[in-house]
Write a structure and sequence with these properties.
The chain is of the alpha/beta class. It contains 21 helices and 20 strands. Helix 4 links the parallel strand 7 and strand 8. Helix 5 packs parallel to helix 6 and helix 18 crosses helix 19. This is PfaD family protein.
């Protein structure tokens, strides 16, 4: 026969309760055998998220169980087990906005964001999509032919989705942006992640409005979904509002959209989802998430009150999401979904080379810095990169300082030019310009014509040769150029490495993007349960509050 002495742990488990029970009207019924009093057994019970969690007290000992049941208290009876806290089962689908799951046909409010140059590769999008999670292909910086190949491959593997393609703003080369939109419309890519936009362009408006129509019930149907990644209120405002009338008129005149579509555009916002991008890798304003997210949610509410959209815009977050703690913080602040970026670059499916993945797996939070961006070099725009193991950020900054100081390559002192040729370019400046001119003659002859008569622009294009190739070297694993690798990365990478240290995910060869996603979501749910218990007065030692990735937990 089971007795109290046989089930109670003789050693303290560290649990204590700081107030009276809130369950005077309920009691727990069940076998004493199913109550855990030992620390490892308690942790297992807390991790059983698909089951209810009961915190009980037996003869001044606090234990945890997932079994048994609750019944109304009977004043005539005195139970030997006192119920302290009861929590319901917890599903990962409960986090975020359920409309995000429905609209995008996914199982979690979790997305992997685009990393340009195909770093967010076809393999990544397909692997994530097969698990019914949303992933955005990193189309930025790729040729139309390369993007077209990716579309065909992803659509073949995921004929019913989910997947998205990145549309990156190209202020210096709008034709590239336009060609990407043409491909997305041609192949009916139904979701794009719009990033780095400083303002709305005819291209993003064209994509959005070309997908508008009326269904059989005369309701507005939005076929082309837009997830806009922003970090500034003024840019968010543009995506939260309907398309500008002036752009719509131009599109009608060009025969790209119809009068009906333009009229419908006045009733819907430019985006379905707004991703608030905090301190991220690549293009970033280094905004703190705890300040930025509430501000954009408030802005969304103001604009929703003004336009009364039938379907309010969802606000998600990106930048700094690399652990269950950061994910839970985002959800608790009201995020409809979370987006990971930097941490996926170190995964097997990413388009980065093995050497880059090893550097990323060693990165700490302080190993990042800002460096000039190739696509917006003349504007002084910077992006966040890894500085550990590479000289790129320092060398890129040197190039920008020279650009700011001098009006032409010829104005740069001879000694400085020789350093450029020997240390950074590793070839003569004339050779760099020759290769640049050959490229532009095929891709952008108009810009080449301008550069011939504009020494300052010519100098910028020569410097952009290095900035552009350095990211490609990181993806292809260019031998001998390791110290010049441009690796886009935010502090989330360091946080992730701290979290997985000592686990199987510490090594890059074990990092699968889907595993990472599941562990972050599982950890988020576990920490939510722990915080729920703490709020209800259970005092829990820190060793119970830590979630570490284990292969076995993927079966939960």
């Amino acid at each position: 026969m089971t007795t109290l002495d046989t089930v109670l742990n003789k050693h303290g488990n560290g649990l204590s309760f700081s107030t009276f029970s809130n369950h005077q009207n309920q009691i727990w019924r069940g076998s004493l055998d199913c109550i855990a009093f030992e620390q490892n057994a308690i942790k297992d019970k807390l991790l059983s998220l698909d089951k209810p969690c009961y915190i009980v007290r037996v003869a001044d000992n606090i234990g945890v169980t997932n079994d048994g049941y609750l019944t109304p208290a009977d004043n005539a009876s005195s139970a030997q087990v006192e119920l302290l806290i009861s929590l319901p089962p917890l599903q990962l689908q409960q986090f975020g906005d359920p409309n995000f799951l429905t609209v995008h046909a996914v199982q979690y409010a979790y997305m992997t964001g685009a990393m340009a140059g195909g770093i967010a590769s076809e393999e990544m999008v397909i692997a994530v999509g097969k698990q019914k999670l949303l992933s955005s292909y990193g189309a930025g910086g790729l040729t139309p032919d390369r993007i077209e190949t990716a579309i065909n491959r992803i659509q073949e593997a995921l004929p019913h989705g989910p997947y998205a393609f990145n549309l990156i703003h190209s202020p210096n080369e709008p034709a590239i942006e336009h060609r990407a939109v043409e491909l997305y419309l041609k192949y009916q890519v139904r979701t794009v992640e719009a990033s780095a936009f400083l303002d709305l362009t005819p291209n993003i408006v064209y994509y959005r409005v070309a997908g508008l129509g009326l269904n059989a019930n005369s309701q507005i149907e939005i076929k082309n979904k837009v997830i806009a990644k922003i970090s500034r209120r003024e840019v968010a405002t543009k995506f939260l509002q309907p398309a500008p009338v002036r752009i719509l008129k131009d599109l009608i005149q060009q025969g790209l959209v119809t009068e009906l579509q333009a009229n419908l555009a006045s009733q819907v916002p430019m985006a379905d989802d707004i991703t608030v991008e905090a301190d991220s890798g690549g293009h970033t304003d280094n905004r703190p998430l705890v300040c930025l997210l509430p501000s954009i949610i408030s802005l969304r509410d103001e604009i929703q009150a003004q336009y009364q959209y039938e379907k309010p815009i969802r606000i998600g977050v990106a930048g700094g999401i690399g652990t269950p703690e950061s994910a839970l913080a985002a959800f608790m602040m009201g995020a409809a979904y979370i987006v990971t970026g930097s941490i996926n670059q170190s995964c097997i499916e990413s388009g980065a080379c093995d050497y880059t993945k090893k550097l990323l797996a060693q990165a700490e939070m302080a190993d990042m810095m800002m460096a000039p961006a190739a696509d917006m070099f003349e504007m002084g725009v910077k992006l966040q990169v890894l500085k550990r193991g590479t000289m790129f950020p320092m060398r890129a900054q040197k190039l920008y300082e020279l650009y700011r100081t001098y009006d032409s390559i010829e104005d740069i002192p001879l000694a400085e030019r020789e350093k450029l040729e020997k240390q950074i370019f590793r070839r003569k400046i004339a050779e760099v310009w020759e290769g640049t001119a050959a490229y532009l003659s095929q891709k952008n002859p108009e810009k080449l014509g301008k550069a011939v008569n504009n020494p300052k622009l010519k100098m910028a294009l020569i410097f952009r040769w290095y900035l552009g190739l350095s990211s490609r070297w990181s993806s292809t694993g260019e031998k001998g150029r390791e110290v010049d690798y441009q690796i886009w990365c935010g502090p989330a990478m360091g946080g992730f490495n701290d979290w997985v240290r000592g686990s199987y995910l510490a090594e890059p060869q074990n990092r699968h993007v889907v595993d990472v996603a599941h562990h972050i979501m599982l950890g988020t749910a576990f920490l939510y349960r722990i915080q729920n218990l703490k709020v209800q007065s259970l005092q829990i030692p820190n060793n119970y509050s830590q979630y570490r990735p284990l292969r076995s937990t993927l079966e939960m």
